[in-house]
Prior knowledge:
Elements: H1 2-32, E1 34-35, E2 54-58, E3 61-65, H2 68-76, H3 78-90
Parallel strand pairs: 1-3
Antiparallel strand pairs: 2-3
Amino acid sequence: MKKIAVFSLILLLIAGVTYAAEQASSTEQVKGTESVGNKICPVSGDKIDEKTKATYEYNGKIYNFCCPMCVEEFKKDPEKYIEKMEKAEEGKGHSGHGKHHHSH
Length: 104
């Protein structure tokens, strides 16, 4: 009888370790990336349609695009498009409070 108990304990340990490892990797992914949640495509400047939208991760942030072709453009010069997008978002007025952060 004793052998069976030891065997099931080992199985539990192995299962526990693999489960913990899987949990760790899935939470890391969530923690490591943040969705920018932009409503306007950084490349085309068009509104993003949920049905056709494409996403791309850059520097730990997930950007939304109106289509996969814009993602390809973005990859060529990400910084240029991020700057363009941030200027466009600022100009909307709804994020006017964001301007105060630059004065520090």
